[in-house]
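Exam prep: given the inputs below (a chain plus protoporphyrin IX containing FE), describe the expected output before reading on.
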Amino acid sequence: MTEDPATEKREKSRFGLILHLHPRKVRESTLRFTLTFGLGGMAATLLLIQVITGLLLKFHYEPSPESAYNSILNLQESLLFGKMLRNIHHWSAIAFVWISFLHMLRVAFTGAYRPPRDVTWITGLALLLLVVLSNFTGYLLPWDQLSYWAVTVAASLLSYIPLAGDPIRRILLGGVEVGQPTLTNFFNLHTGVIPLLIIALMAWHFWRIRRAGGVIVAERDKESPIVSTRPHLINREIVVAMALLAVIFIISSLLDAPLRERANPAFSPNPAKAPWYFMGLQELLIHFHPLFAVFILPVTILAAAVWMPYVRSTDKNQGIWFLSPCGIRSAKMAAFTGALLTIIFITVSEILPDPEALLPRVPPLLTTGLVPFILTSGTVCFLLKYLHRRYSLNRAEMIQSVVVLMVVSYAVLTVTGIFFRGEGMNLVWPWDR
Ligand code: HEM
Ligand code: HEM
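Solution:
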């Protein structure tokens, strides 16, 4: 404990910034690793790694279609630790999406999104979008075949957004197709605008966590002792950050970041796939009308996520994983049914004839849009009603089941898109791709 003012002052000057980010004391129960798995801290560490490695990469990288690819080759082959630097930036970027996503799930599954944590949740959602956007803008920079066509495919998804889609795509690309203006835009967004926005939002995120009185505490732990932040919390955070760094270093020394041949706008690979985190959307596009796949469904899900904290519930189990034994059983059931129904959906839509060809007179907006949308929503509602009745769920447990269902379905779509789609985006076994 640091009760003596002189010692406290010395502590503050040594650990100034880190201590300012924390309250002086925390409840012992919140130190339990299995409550948060340190995921928020890991996300913050990853941002730090990205900023440091990104700034170093910037010394060597040249943002023009003529020199970008060569500057990466040069960096990898002639600069001491150049390849390692790129590998760390590449693997940490992927880890950043995963860790932020898992952190979001931990918050959702411990019910820690409700007021007074509503704004923390919403700033978190914005952070996740920015992390994906920073990955997307970074993806183009190596200017190889993989990055050029992945960005071309992902940007083409934007065109399906009614009215605003095409203008947004043109502004982002700086023209009708990926070229020099796109690289300039992406480079500036990636190395300037987005990191600044993430840092600002993260500061707000942290401030809101402080204002809510720290990390969520379960009702049963409200009486757990209070301990000083240093050494109890800080030491744990340092251990988690070091372990994460070690894992990133090991992966980066064993696996190289991919680099294909230089981008060739005249030759499109078959299949041309979007970056992995957008593959679920690209897969959805095969089954649904574009308006539903890339606009109505994602916007509905995002709006529901923003609205989630404001659904009233009598639940008192916040801070407990999956809220209750019924919550756990229902989540397992939702995961199983979500996976099964999505696999059935993909298989059936592969076997059945194309509805647009079968009913050429009916507008596609109905055959591949509204009708499958209503059928899917109906199935989800039916499943939820069943879960509600079977497990006597309260609203928070219902929300949790919906989140599980959505996440598992999106995961199945993503895995299918990445591993089971071959030439012409046809279904194939991964070993036949
Ligand atoms: C905010 C978090 C960041 C994320 C998630 C991120 C992500 C990425 C990704 C996925 C790539 C492509 C890597 C590859 O496969 O080659 C990349 C490249 C790059 N990033 Fe970042 N980045 C971030 C921050 C930054 C910052 C702050 C800077 C510089 C100020 C930066 C500079 C660069 C440069 C110069 C490249 C091109 C080199 C290369 O592709 O290896 N990044 N970034
Ligand atoms: C750059 C990404 C992010 C960073 C650096 C970050 C950082 C943190 C940290 C350090 C904590 C406290 C410790 C912990 O819970 O692990 C936290 C809590 C929280 N985060 Fe995040 N976060 C990020 C993304 C997100 C996302 C994507 C969401 C949700 C959509 C989110 C929602 C929350 C909420 C609601 C809390 C309070 C949880 C509680 O009181 O138990 N955060 N965040």
